[in-house]
Amino acid sequence: MNVINFLLSAISLGTTFIYGSTGEILTEKAGHLNLGIPGVMCVGGASGCVALSLMYKTGMPPVLILMIAVLATFLGGALMGLIYSFLTVTLHANQNVTGLAMTTFGVGLMKYMMSGLKPIRYLYAVDYFRFPFADMKNSLQYCGVMMLLGFAIAIATSIVLSRTRLGLHLRAVGENPATADAVGINVTAYKYGATCIGSGIAGIGGIFYMLTYSGSQEAYLSVEALGWLAIALVIFTLWKPYLTIFGASLFGTLFVAGSFIPSLGITLDMSATPLLKMLPYIVTVVVLVVTSIRNRGTNQPPASLGTNYFREER
Amino acid sequence: MNKEIALMMQGITKYFGSVAANKNVDLTVYKGEILAILGENGCGKTTLMNMIAGIYYPDEGKIFVDGEEANIRSPKDAFVYRIGMIHQHFKLVDVFSASENIVLGVDDGKKYSIKDVNNRVLEISERYGFHIDPKKKIHEMSVSEKQTVEIIKVLYRGADILILDEPTAVLTPQETARLFDILRRMRDDGKSILIITHKLHEVLSLSDRVAILRKGEHVATVNTAETNESELTEMMVGKKVQLNIQRSMPQNPRVRLSVSDMNAVNEEGVKVLDSISFDAYSGEILGIAGIAGSGQRELLEAIAGLQHLESGKILYQNPKNGEEVNLRDKTPLQIRDLGVRLSFVPEDRLGMGLVGNMNITDNMMLRSYRRGHSMFVDRARPKKLAEDIIHSLAVVTPGLNTPVRRLSGGNVQKVLVGREISTSPTVLMAAYPVRGLDINSSYTIYNLLNKQKENGTAVIFVGEDLDVLLELCDRIMVICAGKITGVVEGRRTTKEELGVLMTRANAAPYENRPAYPLTDDVPQCVESVAEPPVKDFPDAMNRVLMRIKKRGEPQ
What ipTM describes this predicted complex? Predict the structure, then answer.
């Protein structure tokens, strides 16, 4: 029972990464490396909390509250994506610098927004987020609608990318924008669209962690760290959204291993717990090195990733 | 002949900044004809075609398609008017399959199914005689296959007017012949074909009519059957240009570089150089012919010390002290310290030859920054050299301080070649030094190479235009897929022979020694067939050559 509990907990934490990574993959498929994902997740989560606060004790049906909150989260993330797109696509700013700035900005903005909110005014919604397992006392409580939504988004994104005309065009924009432009694809629109929708999806990861997984008033302080892992996971999954489900579960497992091992009866030194919590970061470093050495040829990042497209430069 | 008009351009004018790329161009294209667009580099051919294809929008003038005024603002608009362009640099996504590239950007309202696309591609291939596997990925394809994908891409969209920008530049003679057959079949099918080319014999063999552009203006459109090579050249350049490249007999040729059994593999473990053995003689131009990517780059880089070799020897005979040195696995710096001078004009001008963001003087210093013992670099001499090159090679630049990336391709090439030659090399290797240059600039380069040859330099010239190789080189070495498939005498061989060698899979025995008398065989009396200097060769050019010759100082 203990093991199942542990695995459920791991997978549900991983769902945070599923949102973040799927959003980032979508952006990267358009050729933009959005290092602002941690900031996007922060702002997305904070926007959701603000929306929930506004709906506190309005007597609206829970389904509606949940939907509005998720929508607000999505819009908060998408707004960050819009700023990033405007800077990099329209103004041709350097993507790495802009992304890092977006993270710094997003984390700061979130802290400002959250400091003005009373935890009681948004934590009431935890039960809605965990629907229909809100009454459970074990980790099953995390596996509610929001987790399933995450899985669905990852799979749907994969299908869109590989099976539809829209996906073909988007991949072409990320691989070779000049080619896409020459055949009449609106490169700018695709870049804006993919970045904004991707950021919106990543933003939902923020609120998922704050309300579904954690459900505590300190949760928002850890979102940034998870955002960085979400970016690392993109490389780990070789830019395939459906693989984020497995990759994210693995990352989640490593993340919660620190608190699970003592429950097996193995007594750990006080200093060992922080060391265990480092595991996902160490694995990330190893994975980054291995994947970049191993994958030559097919599983490469989008060819124009990180470079801005100027139409005049032909 | 009452042919229907497919497309008509009236008074087309396009400016880039203050420079007119096209001035008041009128052009008519009929249905079911092949119209060649002929002109020197930078005469506005590609710009004009890009305006039909929707890449640029004309500043003035009108375009009519099927008698109606067409407002073509984007490539997508062009497709609405059933116009498609096959660009010189292929616009394909490498990781996509042929079909995925072909269907890219097409929205016919039907459900997207790659199977249907595959079938349709095969249908088109059958109709016009292409050979293609719709599922093959672009990065696994040869250049000619990629071009096929580009053409089918345009046909898939139902284009009736096809524009091809220098389609034969990357093809072997056999592939070119096959392409021309396909184009003729399309013409007979009622399509209008516009083909941009430099190659006069192709114009004459393929087209129905020729439109000649000069300096952005439309000079004339003539029926191909009623014209000839010299008339076209005259219209194209405005004055008669000597078609013959100077070629003197090599003087006192001696082995300068002796390469034996050179092997190299690339990152993927594919053999890029396979048992390469040849000799390069002083005072001769050794041409290297081959389809792009056959190992030319690796070969030159191996000699320059930039490519790791699995095995083999590169013996260099130092003309100063008669010593023999093995250059293999030496770094470029060691090679220089040994007194061996290799001047290398890489294929990729801006990538390896010059730094785009640096100005001309600074680029000169890339070769000389190690000079002197002061902690500050010597800027005076590079500056003088830069001025000399600008003046004598007629480099068009706003000034010495302009970053080289802002110069046009031909001028960049002049700067690079000028710098390499100024070091008075004993072996000069040049890869595609005239790529993208107009006729006059090309001749300037040929003459520079010939001067080097007369000075006793062993010149290795990697070229793509077979006509030039045939006229310029004393011997031509043909490589195919990293193997030498033949070494032939430039004065005796034919284009067909070269074309066959370029596509031959297996190496065959070849003669490694030139047929003309070597110093060892005939000590003094070398037959001299030097022709008188070309009149058009600019005086300034002769002056710089004298200066370079005089300088001749070691670095």
Answer: 0.85
